[in-house]
Amino acid sequence: MKLPRVTLVSLLTDSIALKHLRVAGFRHAVVAAEYAYDLAKERNVCTDLATKAALLHDIGHTSWEKHGKWDFESYDYFDIHPIKGAERAHELLTLKGEHLGKAREIALAILFHSGSSPINTNLKLTPLQELVMEADDIDELDDGEHHNIEISLDDALDRLEILDNKVAKHLDDCNKECWDCRKGQV
Ligand SMILES: [Fe+2]
Ligand SMILES: [Fe+2]
């Protein structure tokens, strides 16, 4: 069994991810990646791309506050975190040495992960993009509360290590050719 050349653990331990994923919460990122793995396996979508896009989907978050308090209503309407996130994730992935084709697919899935974003109007999503949006939605709570439930970084990394091994195993069993996977598919 061979791990992908960029692992989920190596992404979360990077200073860019640590700084920005903390804002939306490590728990939400990890849970979305776990859901994405299950959905990707079920739908025959690449688990490597799905878990990375889901882990990084909210890396574009900023502290959206009014009078020192999280302002969900304004955030929900005006925020552009899918755009910032796609850019940040792409930079992080290419810095880590991710295959450029994979980095592009992951960045696009992050760009289109929010159904309420005007970017998504009249858009036909790919299976990967749809799946990342769903993995995010499954964990959603009213008023953005899913961003406020915390787990420690150690717990997050333990769970990602398990997921990295599952992805490696899935890629071993996958028989499609795809970029540098040797096997795998979008
Ligand atoms: Fe989001
Ligand atoms: Fe999210």
Total domains: 1
Low-confidence stretches: none
Question: What share of residues are in beta strands?
Answer: under 5%
Q: Supply the number of helical segments.
A: 9
Radius of gyration: 16 Å
The helix fraction, in percent, is 55-70%
Task: Characterize the overall form.
Answer: globular
Bound molecules: fe (ii) ion
> Mind telling me which CATH architecture this is?
Orthogonal Bundle
* N-to-C order of helices and strands: HHHHEEHHHHH
Quaternary structure type: single chain
Class by helix and strand content? mainly alpha
Could you give a short account of the major beta sheet?
A: 2 strands, antiparallel
Cα distance spanning the termini: 20 Å
> What is the mean pLDDT?
90
Number of strands: 2
Which strands sit side by side, in order, in the main sheet? 1-2
Annotated CATH topology: Hypothetical protein af1432
The CATH class label is: Mainly Alpha
What would you note in describing this structure?
- There is one protein chain.
- By secondary structure, this protein is mostly helical.
- It has a single domain (8-181), classed as Hypothetical protein af1432 (Orthogonal Bundle), CATH 1.10.3210.
- The chain has helices at residues 8-12, 15-24, 26-43, 47-56, 72-78, 81-96, 100-111, 127-138, 153-173, and strands spanning 65-66, 69-70.
- It has a two-stranded antiparallel sheet with strand order 1-2.
- The two termini are 20 Å apart.
- The model has no long low-confidence stretch (mean pLDDT 90).
- Bound molecules: fe (ii) ion (FE2) (2 copies).
- One fe (ii) ion binds at residues 57-58, 81, 113-114, 136.
